[in-house]
Records
---
Amino acid sequence: MDEEYIYYIFCSVEYLPDIYKKKNINFIFPRYKTGLFRLYWDYLGLKKWSVSNNIIPSLIVSLQNTTIIFDKETPQISYIMQSIPFVDVSWNVFNKTERQLWFYKNIYPFFMGLNLSQDHYVVTQAKWIKEKFSKKFNFPMNRIYPIRPIVKIGSSNNKQKFNRDEYNIFCPSSPFIYKNNVEIANALGYLRSKNQDISNLRVFITFECKDDIELTEVINRHNLERNFVFTGRLTYEDMLKYYNGCDLVVFPSYLETFGLPLLEAAAFGKPLLCANEAYAMEVIDDYEGAKLLVINNPKLWGESILDNYKNKKQYNQYTAQFKESWNDFFKLIKDIIKDKGNNVQK
């Protein structure tokens, strides 16, 4: 952080002051962290705190996707890492597994767009969100800055000890509906329905079977119990072992902002099947081992898995060369403070 400025950081991680010991960084731990209390803090509490502590900010940075209610003449940056409002997918508010997604799709944008003004700037975690944000909120493109995160992928010489007589497929995922885990089960179900021998295919997926009831039902319906292994949540070191040791990585998620597992798979030169979505095109399209597939297509995914099984290719290790860095973020901060939002150049 630029030491010519004083930063007041409001967060809930109370061990940070022990890690970042700098005179120009002050950590504040508000009592209001979640729900309606959090809204109170964003829209009333911060302004009240600023007045009571006699602090007039030169710039407000929100790292929570939303805007802050403050004086209009105080410039703001909103850091947007929530992608749900920008995808063409609908969810059912009456389905408890989809209710939170419905909220982020239909209600949350109100808080993202509230208080946007001519002294407001937006930083997106991915380039594909830039145009989506501009269109949704009628916000000027020249005040939106896509600054992708710096990606440092660990290396590992250790490999997960798989049965080498089997074809081991790694699915780094979580039990959310948008992760589209059923795509893989339906793909194997399709192969079985075509009398393909899938007895040697093993899918290792990174949560407990009880966590994704829909996936479990599809597995049972297609009699795929022997084809799926639920590892439970893995440490990062174990994740690297799975990437290094597996034969194929699958990532059928249709909703991601960035899609880090794609780069992790590519870093080990693994063949990769992933959803043909904007996030994947941006992150991994240059990797020769990646194949982007339309979702909800068991035939396409099944035949692609079978093709990889028959050919068993390995690719050159790939590292994405993103031009952006956190230096660009802090340069933007400096430019806004210096020019008060009037002459910031893209």
Note: The mean pLDDT is 90.
---
Amino acid sequence: MSKPENPRAFPSAAIDDQFGGMTMRDWFAGQALAGMVGHPKVTAASLGIHAAKRCYELADAMLAERAKGRGK
């Protein structure tokens, strides 16, 4: 299975391609982490070392769903 498209989150002509900032995957993962941390029952200790992995899994799922929408 091929990976879904992962464009830049905030594209700009002023930013070069090599160091173009975060990707959509990074943005989605960060938003997932913000949602987790914002939950009243979640602490840094309860997130554990697997939080980043889970956030990127969620980001990959969001990219896959985003790609499906483009095919409509």
Note: The mean pLDDT is 81.
---
Amino acid sequence: MTADVLIVDDSITVRMDLLEALDEAGIGATACASVREAREALAGSKFALVILDILLPDGDGTDILREIRGGPAGVDTVVMLLSSEAEVRDRVRGFTLGADEYVGKPYESGYVVARARDLLRRRGGTSASAEPTVLLIDDSITFREALKQSLADAAYRVLTAGSGEEGLRIAATARPDAIVVDGMLPGIDGAAVVRRVRLDAVLRGTPCLLLTAADGHAAEIQALEAGADGFARKDEDISVVLARLAALLRQAGAQRRDEETASILGPRKILAVDDSETYLQELAEVLRQDGYDVVLARSGEEALELLAVQTVDCVLLDLIMPGMGGQEVCRRVKAAPVMRDTPVIMLTAREDRDAIIEGLGAGADDYIVKSSDFKVLRARVLAQIRRKQFEDEHRRIREQMLHKELETTEARAAQKLAEVRAALVDELETRNAELAAAKE
């Protein structure tokens, strides 16, 4: 028997929250509350992913982790530790024991589900559906449920979201075959959703159908200028919407799903390094609102200790700290082959020219003066993650091209070698024939 996810946590609130969130995401899950129950579940079923709390009433969750890694399914099972013990030393211990991911409590269920999707997709823990997957983004529950049912009746697998922000997070990990989005949404509107999809290397080819309740051609022009592939009015018959969607999918054809490139909109982890506990907590609260998982380090030494065992998508690094300062940390990060491509944004209260030169001279990718207004910081973080994604994509494409060139060169060399061998065999046979004739 096989299931997708096993949740092990003694908090009924956590269990119910994650079960509901995973169910809404179309991921099968079961839950238990203790080490004993976890062992029974693992003995009776094979799980692709285990979300594991560390502090359990009858033992330590890391004991379960050790047993999973030591068992026959140890290599194939993904383990995500989810614990209130989220200091750097706790994370290092978890990764050392074999965890694939570590998320601290309090957590954002959206991040946990997105990360679970990502881990399952990368490990092949979820089977691909033969039905085309459509992501439906609409804040009207009535309209959303009606269209969802019509799509399901038309043999589509449907994922739903009530806001643009939620829809983008789902799109990043689910990678749907098409997106149907309402033009008017709370927060970012439908046109902004389409624009962000088009900026993402993973999603930019996804067909987008934008819906509107507005009359006139202005809404349609706005939708198409934003990058939408099609347009439909909400007051049209549902069959018209389905026909437009089917046409977009036919035009898109069978697109190659890129499983290697990570979506810029997917679950992202930020390491914030600062000796000020107050500033760290303020920074973490703001970034978590954007869906990031934030890891906190209080010193440069702690930051390097964490980076040795866990990759992150961006480092926010205080310039001046007791012990190892930000410049030295940055130099070491940029000198290490496994870390040098990680974006580093230097943070400091100093606004003078020398401070900027020092930070950038140490290898930082950007430099921000500390402020209680985090809008600029949030935008800079997103810009660095986007830049890193494009660089990774281009590097992967170059590597694929070089690999193909190498294969072509090897094939030509093998063909040439075969031709030379054939010529030598022919020459040898001719000489043997001549010798035989001379003897006669």
Note: DSSP finds 15 helices and 17 strands in the chain.
